[in-house]
Amino acid sequence: MLILTCPYCGVAAEETELQPGGEAHLKRVGPEGSDDELEGYLFARKNPKGVHFERWRHAYGCGKWFLAARDTATLQVYGTYKAQTTHPPADVVSEIRKSRPDWQPDWTQAE
Ligand SMILES: [Zn+2]
Description:
Elements: E1 3-5, E2 12-14, E3 19-23, H1 35-43, E4 51-57, E5 65-71, E6 77-82, H2 90-99
Antiparallel strand pairs: 1-2, 3-4, 4-5, 5-6
The structure holds zinc ion (ZN).
Zinc ion binds next to loops.
């Protein structure tokens, strides 16, 4: 069973207490975006076997959205953090690298 710790209230919530919200760290495409960018934002989602960043809501708890980093193959949870962060915090990245030294983030520091 998947257990995620809510970063707001600190409760270690079972999967049944949570609502999944899909991929984390998506960038919205505004009216100035091209058709391809809008299509990618609306429909293209990652589905990796391995490290994945997801949105979850503590539906039967505090009700807040948060983000989680976990491995989709092993269900190992690397960490959870508040939804307002644009990239995973350093402690979460460090946890990922302990288990997956070959893992490379797909973002750049300039973003
Ligand atoms: Zn909570």
